[in-house]
């Protein structure tokens, strides 16, 4: 996994609530056998029509809207537990998703794939949306070590929570599997000790 | 590179003196390591994998250049994406075929036992584990599928995991997990005529809602639960996740031990005796505290059926669909619209088009016997398409030995080959748009059984009754 420290980037706004994993990556794309390439189908049915023609109204198809940060409405990532949703967002090129609430499983899946979910208050989320609306190229700073997200144009910032284990993993570029692999000797010992 | 996690040598929490729940006991037994302000490293005794959620996990191992930590603890089967007709022929859909072929390749390469298509043990992953005696009390069991909770019927901790976690288990035989809270659901009393375990769980979910169990692991108990067979208990635990719970379990007893004894991978001889003395200790202490408790009376339960688009939207068969209130609940309005049902209407007598008997919830031999008993010597309604998908090759074989296939086909039911089938509609078994399907599966979400399909969840008895009459029927009127 890539190390995560600080990101300064413009952001892509998606001011919708309850964006579920079926919208993020529709079920018919679950037959793939690799993690890569899901970005092509991120928000597939919003991005393209049935013939594969890009929908000019959808935000990902607007050239003035780019960046490594996706900013979305409340309860992002609800629905099925498919990890493919986190893969698709990361594969597309996002490193951070900002919302005022995340579905539990999505949050875990994101963290396991180097994608940082930043949960902010509803008022701060509204501020971010209006800042982007005024200037689509406005920059956000996401500072993991200080657990702080800042609107650089105005200097307004907010603290966000992340448990210290997950923070350490992201900073070092480790995922849970790296952690478990570092414990292999201990696990082997444990396995041997299982009497029954 | 071996990552350096030396800052993360958290302490295991100190054991307290209070009584423990069965869940706590099994969980604690499997904790290898606890991370401060983080999850715990939980050792996994049995790992089931299938074609849909495993390829990326094997891909991860390859990328890291490592093998499977303990190949004897992982068992694979192909079920989600397989056809239920002509399984001896190559799979027609190219993507599905590729997924199944990838599973075969990965299992060969990494040395994992595979019960694939054509193997006498092949079947739905949550059906084959128990029937082969692989699923046992006191274990931790995981699979990349949410209905792994089924195995909890044997008094173990079983739950579904994501693909990264599948990779964790393959690589280290462990997962990182936060311990959930505990919930007790006690059902006492005698079940009424025509009411079976599927009705109990649909009733419970309708009472506590699809999110009532979120954050909890459930232990089911009480005289109504204890009186159930193992297969009936599996139906209950299977659907525990439909109320949001991480999983469900039932303490093992003589019925459990009797079921396991003599199965393919059950312990034998001295091993059996050793296991038995361990299994008999697997109980919640009298003074143990649950974080939440619910009590229900079995006599209050009727045959159940769902009217909406989540499993919590269930009613007794003689009840009416809830009326839309003055301040309408948008999810109810949306559900009724999708199902094309009127608030306040009766479901009895409503014409249906499909009957699906199958899925890891209700596709075992007892389910098939229940259906065969009811339909013996009768005919399904002409307009109904009635499908029965046995849970495994072994169930299929047993059904044939008992002559159930004969009874079923004479009644106009089509007995197909094992797999998940129309439970999730990933293969070609789908319910067409706008059609009503009385289904013994576990999810009635919009589009779950096919785009626009209208699913009504019910027990095998209620489903079979609907197939015979062609409409929603109170099965109690058909049995003595
Ligand atoms: S039968 Fe349905 S619920 Fe069960 S494992 Fe298969 S897809 Fe999942």
Main traits of this protein?
heterodimer, A: 196 residues, alpha/beta, 7-stranded mixed sheet, 8 helices, globular, B: 480 residues, 5-stranded parallel sheet, 15 helices, 19 strands, binds iron/sulfur cluster
Could you describe the 3D structure shown?
The complex is a heterodimer of chains A (about 200) and B (about 475). With about 200 residues, chain A is α/β, with parallel strands linked by helices. Helices cover about 35% and strands about 15% of the residues of chain A. Chain A has helices spanning about 20-25, 45, 85-90, 105-110, 120-135, 165-170, 175-180, 185-195, and strands at about 5-15, 70, 95-100, 115-120, 140-145, 150, 155-160. Chain A has a 7-stranded mixed sheet. The longest helix of chain A is centred in the middle third of the chain and has 13 residues, at about 120-135. Chain A starts with 5 loop residues before the first strand and ends with a helix. Chain B is an alpha/beta fold and about 475 residues long. Chain B has helices at about 20-30, 55-65, 95-110, 125-130, 165-170, 195-210, 225, 230-240, 255-260, 270-280, 330-340, 365-375, 395-400, 405-410, 460-470, and strands at about 30-35, 40-45, 45-50, 75, 115, 140-145, 155-160, 175, 180-190, 215-220, 245-250, 290-295, 305, 315, 355, 385-390, 415, 435-440, 455. In chain B, strands 5-4-3-6-7 form a 5-stranded parallel sheet. A 5-stranded parallel sheet of chain B has the order 17-16-15-18-19, covered by helices on one side. The longest helix of chain B is centred in the first third of the chain and has 17 residues, at about 95-110. Chain B is globular and about 55 Å long. Chains A and B meet through helix 4, helix 6, helix 7 and helix 8 of A and helix 2, helix 3, helix 5 and helix 10 of B. The structure holds iron/sulfur cluster. Iron/sulfur cluster binds near residues 423 and 442 of chain B.
